[in-house]
Amino acid sequence: MAFAALLGALPRVAWVMFVTTIIWVTIYDTLYAMVDREDDLKIGVNSSAIVFADMDRLIVGALQLTMLLALLLMGRSLDFGNAYLGAVGVAALFFPLSAVVDPCARAQRLPARLLNNHYVGMSIFIGILLEYIYRP
Questions:
Q1: The pTM is what?
Q2: How far is CA 26 from CA 22, 51, 71, 133, in A?
Q3: 115-125 pLDDT, tens digit each
């Protein structure tokens, strides 16, 4: 919306941001759905965890990698520098932590994995903020 309002058009980077956001939501939702898989099957909900079945962890990993690559493409399109690259690197460190907690174990529930996603977002936000604060 901001791109369209300010520029009167949607540049490529806007679409990259949009797709990156969709990928991130899919990652987050799938991790969440993996815990509730049995309940979803009982009530007939076709969550992403059910659709991905036993390939869920592999697909989430592939989506995480795709998201990181899209973030790098976005940063390159916006001429972001080292602060942003470092932030993407920090965000990349949080993704594997999502797999450490057994996504299907109800006892461990969601807090660790969901907090990791908050840290991913916070890292990217800080990187973008630093790019704009220290931009020459």
A1: 0.84
A2: 6, 12, 15, 31
A3: 678 889 999 99
